[in-house]
Protein backbone atom coordinates (compact mmCIF):
# COMPACT_ATOMS: atom_id res chain seq x y z
CA UNK A 1 0.00 0.00 0.00
CA UNK A 2 2.82 2.41 0.85
CA UNK A 3 4.50 1.61 -2.44
CA UNK A 4 1.31 2.40 -4.32
CA UNK A 5 0.86 5.74 -2.55
CA UNK A 6 4.39 6.74 -3.46
CA UNK A 7 3.78 6.02 -7.13
CA UNK A 8 0.40 7.57 -7.79
CA UNK A 9 0.37 9.85 -10.78
CA UNK A 10 4.12 9.86 -11.32
CA UNK A 11 5.66 9.77 -14.75
CA UNK A 12 9.19 8.43 -15.10
CA UNK A 13 11.62 9.03 -17.93
CA UNK A 14 12.93 5.67 -19.14
CA UNK A 15 16.12 5.59 -21.21
CA UNK A 16 16.98 2.84 -23.66
CA UNK A 17 19.07 2.22 -26.77
CA UNK A 18 16.57 0.84 -29.26
CA UNK A 19 18.97 -1.16 -31.44
CA UNK A 20 18.88 -4.38 -29.46
CA UNK A 21 16.20 -6.81 -30.69
CA UNK A 22 14.34 -8.58 -29.19
CA UNK A 23 14.86 -6.44 -26.06
CA UNK A 24 14.34 -2.98 -27.57
CA UNK A 25 13.88 -1.91 -31.16
CA UNK A 26 11.68 0.32 -33.28
CA UNK A 27 8.74 -1.10 -35.23
CA UNK A 28 6.19 1.07 -37.03
CA UNK A 29 7.61 4.07 -35.21
CA UNK A 30 7.06 2.49 -31.79
CA UNK A 31 9.48 1.24 -29.17
CA UNK A 32 8.84 -2.46 -28.80
CA UNK A 33 10.58 -5.53 -27.39
CA UNK A 34 10.89 -7.53 -24.21
CA UNK A 35 12.35 -4.67 -22.13
CA UNK A 36 9.76 -2.18 -23.40
CA UNK A 37 6.85 -4.50 -22.53
CA UNK A 38 8.46 -5.36 -19.21
CA UNK A 39 8.86 -1.77 -18.02
CA UNK A 40 5.34 -0.88 -19.20
CA UNK A 41 3.95 -3.91 -17.38
CA UNK A 42 5.83 -2.99 -14.20
CA UNK A 43 4.48 0.57 -14.48
CA UNK A 44 0.91 -0.71 -14.96
CA UNK A 45 1.26 -3.13 -12.07
CA UNK A 46 2.73 -0.55 -9.69
CA UNK A 47 0.66 2.44 -10.82
CA UNK A 48 3.10 4.80 -12.52
CA UNK A 49 3.60 6.04 -16.05
CA UNK A 50 6.63 5.89 -18.31
CA UNK A 51 7.97 7.89 -21.22
CA UNK A 52 10.57 6.08 -23.34
CA UNK A 53 13.64 8.03 -24.47
CA UNK A 54 15.99 6.54 -27.09
CA UNK A 55 19.67 7.45 -26.89
CA UNK A 56 23.17 6.10 -27.47
CA UNK A 57 23.84 3.21 -25.10
CA UNK A 58 27.01 4.93 -23.97
CA UNK A 59 25.06 8.00 -22.72
CA UNK A 60 22.50 6.13 -20.60
CA UNK A 61 24.40 5.88 -17.31
CA UNK A 62 25.45 9.55 -17.36
CA UNK A 63 21.88 10.65 -18.19
CA UNK A 64 20.61 8.61 -15.26
CA UNK A 65 23.27 9.87 -12.87
CA UNK A 66 22.57 13.50 -13.81
CA UNK A 67 18.82 13.07 -13.30
CA UNK A 68 17.76 13.45 -16.95
CA UNK A 69 16.44 9.89 -16.74
CA UNK A 70 14.76 8.06 -13.85
CA UNK A 71 15.10 4.52 -15.16
CA UNK A 72 17.32 2.72 -17.67
CA UNK A 73 16.24 -0.54 -19.26
CA UNK A 74 18.49 -1.52 -22.15
CA UNK A 75 19.57 -5.13 -21.80
CA UNK A 76 22.08 -3.57 -19.45
CA UNK A 77 24.45 -5.91 -17.67
CA UNK A 78 24.92 -5.45 -13.95
CA UNK A 79 28.65 -4.73 -13.57
CA UNK A 80 30.73 -3.63 -10.59
CA UNK A 81 31.81 -0.51 -12.44
CA UNK A 82 28.21 0.55 -13.17
CA UNK A 83 27.11 -0.36 -9.64
CA UNK A 84 29.35 2.43 -8.39
CA UNK A 85 27.28 5.02 -10.25
CA UNK A 86 23.71 3.63 -10.33
CA UNK A 87 21.59 1.03 -8.53
CA UNK A 88 20.28 -2.11 -10.25
CA UNK A 89 17.09 -4.12 -9.80
CA UNK A 90 17.06 -7.85 -9.26
CA UNK A 91 18.41 -9.54 -12.43
CA UNK A 92 15.83 -10.38 -15.09
CA UNK A 93 17.95 -12.06 -17.79
CA UNK A 94 21.22 -13.97 -18.22
CA UNK A 95 23.29 -13.74 -21.42
CA UNK A 96 26.66 -14.54 -22.98
CA UNK A 97 28.56 -12.79 -25.76
CA UNK A 98 28.58 -14.06 -29.35
CA UNK A 99 30.98 -13.60 -32.22
CA UNK A 100 29.08 -12.86 -35.44
CA UNK A 101 30.50 -12.86 -38.99
CA UNK A 102 29.02 -12.29 -42.41
CA UNK A 103 27.40 -15.41 -43.90
CA UNK A 104 29.64 -17.07 -46.45
CA UNK A 105 32.72 -15.13 -45.33
CA UNK A 106 34.37 -18.40 -44.36
CA UNK A 107 35.56 -16.79 -41.14
CA UNK A 108 35.55 -18.80 -37.90
CA UNK A 109 36.21 -18.02 -34.24
CA UNK A 110 39.86 -17.37 -35.19
CA UNK A 111 38.59 -14.07 -36.58
CA UNK A 112 39.30 -12.78 -33.05
CA UNK A 113 43.02 -13.23 -33.57
CA UNK A 114 45.54 -11.43 -35.73
CA UNK A 115 44.88 -8.93 -38.46
CA UNK A 116 41.07 -8.81 -38.42
CA UNK A 117 38.74 -5.86 -37.83
CA UNK A 118 36.36 -6.35 -34.90
CA UNK A 119 33.30 -4.22 -34.12
CA UNK A 120 31.39 -3.60 -30.89
CA UNK A 121 28.83 -1.13 -29.56
CA UNK A 122 30.54 1.65 -27.61
CA UNK A 123 30.41 1.22 -23.86
CA UNK A 124 29.01 -2.31 -23.83
CA UNK A 125 30.40 -5.30 -21.98
CA UNK A 126 31.40 -6.67 -25.41
CA UNK A 127 33.45 -3.50 -25.96
CA UNK A 128 35.23 -3.99 -22.64
CA UNK A 129 35.82 -7.69 -23.26
CA UNK A 130 37.44 -7.14 -26.65
CA UNK A 131 39.54 -4.28 -25.35
CA UNK A 132 40.81 -6.19 -22.31
CA UNK A 133 41.28 -9.61 -23.84
CA UNK A 134 42.17 -8.95 -27.46
CA UNK A 135 43.31 -5.37 -28.01
CA UNK A 136 45.40 -4.75 -24.90
CA UNK A 137 46.99 -8.19 -25.21
CA UNK A 138 47.76 -7.53 -28.90
CA UNK A 139 46.09 -10.85 -29.77
CA UNK A 140 44.11 -8.71 -32.18
CA UNK A 141 46.20 -6.50 -34.43
CA UNK A 142 43.52 -5.30 -36.85
CA UNK A 143 41.17 -2.37 -36.30
CA UNK A 144 38.94 -2.15 -33.26
CA UNK A 145 35.75 -0.40 -34.42
CA UNK A 146 33.30 1.09 -31.94
CA UNK A 147 29.78 1.83 -33.20
CA UNK A 148 27.09 3.98 -31.67
CA UNK A 149 24.43 1.37 -32.45
CA UNK A 150 24.35 -2.33 -33.32
CA UNK A 151 22.26 -1.42 -36.36
CA UNK A 152 25.27 0.46 -37.79
CA UNK A 153 27.63 -2.35 -36.79
CA UNK A 154 25.47 -4.97 -38.53
CA UNK A 155 25.27 -2.89 -41.70
CA UNK A 156 29.07 -2.62 -41.79
CA UNK A 157 29.37 -6.37 -41.20
CA UNK A 158 27.01 -7.23 -44.04
CA UNK A 159 28.80 -4.77 -46.35
CA UNK A 160 32.20 -6.28 -45.53
CA UNK A 161 33.55 -3.21 -43.75
CA UNK A 162 34.28 -5.13 -40.56
CA UNK A 163 35.11 -8.84 -40.11
CA UNK A 164 33.20 -9.67 -36.94
CA UNK A 165 30.96 -8.14 -34.29
CA UNK A 166 30.92 -9.13 -30.62
CA UNK A 167 27.51 -8.73 -28.98
CA UNK A 168 25.09 -10.31 -26.53
CA UNK A 169 24.00 -13.81 -27.61
CA UNK A 170 20.20 -13.36 -27.58
CA UNK A 171 20.58 -10.31 -29.82
CA UNK A 172 23.10 -12.02 -32.08
CA UNK A 173 20.61 -14.86 -32.56
CA UNK A 174 17.91 -12.37 -33.49
CA UNK A 175 20.11 -10.58 -36.04
CA UNK A 176 21.17 -13.96 -37.48
CA UNK A 177 17.52 -14.64 -38.28
CA UNK A 178 16.90 -11.37 -40.09
CA UNK A 179 20.26 -10.67 -41.78
CA UNK A 180 22.89 -12.65 -43.71
CA UNK A 181 25.13 -13.09 -40.67
CA UNK A 182 26.04 -16.10 -38.55
CA UNK A 183 27.33 -16.89 -35.06
CA UNK A 184 30.74 -18.59 -35.05
CA UNK A 185 31.49 -18.58 -31.35
CA UNK A 186 30.19 -17.96 -27.86
CA UNK A 187 32.10 -16.24 -25.07
CA UNK A 188 30.58 -17.57 -21.84
CA UNK A 189 30.23 -14.43 -19.73
CA UNK A 190 27.00 -15.36 -17.92
CA UNK A 191 26.18 -11.68 -17.47
CA UNK A 192 22.93 -10.61 -15.82
CA UNK A 193 20.68 -7.79 -17.00
CA UNK A 194 19.15 -5.37 -14.52
CA UNK A 195 16.99 -2.26 -14.60
CA UNK A 196 18.92 0.77 -13.34
CA UNK A 197 17.80 3.76 -11.25
CA UNK A 198 19.71 6.69 -9.77
CA UNK A 199 22.01 5.72 -6.94
CA UNK A 200 20.08 5.83 -3.68
CA UNK A 201 16.59 5.98 -5.23
CA UNK A 202 15.33 3.24 -2.96
CA UNK A 203 11.63 3.99 -3.42
CA UNK A 204 11.73 3.58 -7.17
CA UNK A 205 14.00 0.54 -6.96
CA UNK A 206 11.59 -1.11 -4.50
CA UNK A 207 8.69 -0.42 -6.84
CA UNK A 208 10.54 -1.98 -9.76
CA UNK A 209 11.64 -5.04 -7.78
CA UNK A 210 8.14 -5.54 -6.41
CA UNK A 211 6.77 -5.18 -9.94
CA UNK A 212 9.20 -7.80 -11.30
CA UNK A 213 8.23 -10.16 -8.48
CA UNK A 214 4.51 -9.77 -9.09
CA UNK A 215 4.87 -10.22 -12.85
CA UNK A 216 6.91 -13.37 -12.25
CA UNK A 217 4.29 -14.74 -9.90
CA UNK A 218 1.37 -13.91 -12.16
CA UNK A 219 3.02 -15.48 -15.22
CA UNK A 220 2.98 -12.17 -17.08
CA UNK A 221 6.76 -12.27 -17.63
CA UNK A 222 6.46 -15.69 -19.28
CA UNK A 223 3.81 -14.22 -21.54
CA UNK A 224 6.11 -11.38 -22.64
CA UNK A 225 8.98 -13.84 -23.18
CA UNK A 226 6.90 -16.02 -25.49
CA UNK A 227 5.86 -12.94 -27.43
CA UNK A 228 9.46 -12.03 -28.31
CA UNK A 229 11.54 -15.23 -28.14
N1 LIG B 1 24.53 -6.23 -22.14
C1 LIG B 1 25.49 -5.37 -22.72
C2 LIG B 1 25.91 -4.30 -21.75
O1 LIG B 1 25.25 -4.07 -20.78
C3 LIG B 1 24.98 -4.73 -24.00
C4 LIG B 1 23.74 -3.93 -23.86
C5 LIG B 1 23.42 -3.14 -25.10
N2 LIG B 1 22.09 -2.63 -25.05
C6 LIG B 1 21.48 -1.94 -26.02
N3 LIG B 1 20.24 -1.61 -25.83
N4 LIG B 1 22.11 -1.64 -27.12
O2 LIG B 1 26.89 -3.64 -21.91
Descriptive notes:
37% of the residues lie in helices and 27% in strands. The chain is α/β, with parallel strands linked by helices. It has 2 domains: 2-92 and 194-228, D-Maltodextrin-Binding Protein, domain 2 (3-Layer(aba) Sandwich), CATH 3.40.190.10; 95-191, Periplasmic binding protein-like II (D-Maltodextrin-Binding Protein, domain 2), CATH 3.40.190. The strands form 3 sheets. Strands 4-1-5-12-6 form a 5-stranded mixed beta sheet. Helix 2 (34-46) packs across helix 8 (202-218) and helix 2 packs antiparallel against helix 9. The longest helix has 17 residues, at 202-218. The mean pLDDT is 96. It binds arginine. Arginine binds at residues 17, 19-20, 24, 57, 74-77, 121, 124-125, 150, 168.
In short:
With 229 residues, the protein is of the alpha/beta class. It is built from 9 helices and 12 strands. The strands form 3 sheets. The chain has a 5-stranded mixed beta sheet. Strands 9-8-10-7-11 form a 5-stranded mixed beta sheet, with helices on both faces. Strands 2-3 form a two-stranded antiparallel sheet.
Summary tags:
229 residues; alpha/beta; D-Maltodextrin-Binding Protein, domain 2; 2 domains; five-stranded mixed sheet; globular; binds arginine
Query: What is the CATH architecture annotation of the largest domain?
Result: 3-Layer(aba) Sandwich
The small molecules bound here are: arginine
Overall residue-averaged pLDDT value: 96
In terms of structural class, how would the helical and strand content be classed?
Answer: alpha/beta
CATH fourth-tier homologous superfamily of the largest domain: Periplasmic binding protein-like II
- Shape by Cα distribution: globular
Helix content: 25-40%
How many extended strands? Answer: 12
Largest sheet: 5 strands, mixed
- Our estimate of the beta-strand percent is 25-35%
Low-confidence stretches: none
Main β-sheet, spatial strand arrangement: 4-1-5-12-6
| Element order: H for helix, E for strand | HEEEHEHEHEEEHEHEHEEHH
Oligomer: single chain
Nearest-angstrom radius of gyration?
18 Å
The number of helical segments is: 9
The CATH first-level class of the largest domain comes to: Alpha Beta
Amino acid sequence: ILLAVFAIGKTYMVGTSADFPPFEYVEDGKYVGFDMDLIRAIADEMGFKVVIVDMAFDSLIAALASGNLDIVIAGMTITEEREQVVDFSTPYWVADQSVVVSEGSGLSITVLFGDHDIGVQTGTTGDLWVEENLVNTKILTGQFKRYETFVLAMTDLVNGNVDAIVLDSPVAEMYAKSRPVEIVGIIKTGEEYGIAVQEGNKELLNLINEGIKRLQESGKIEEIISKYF
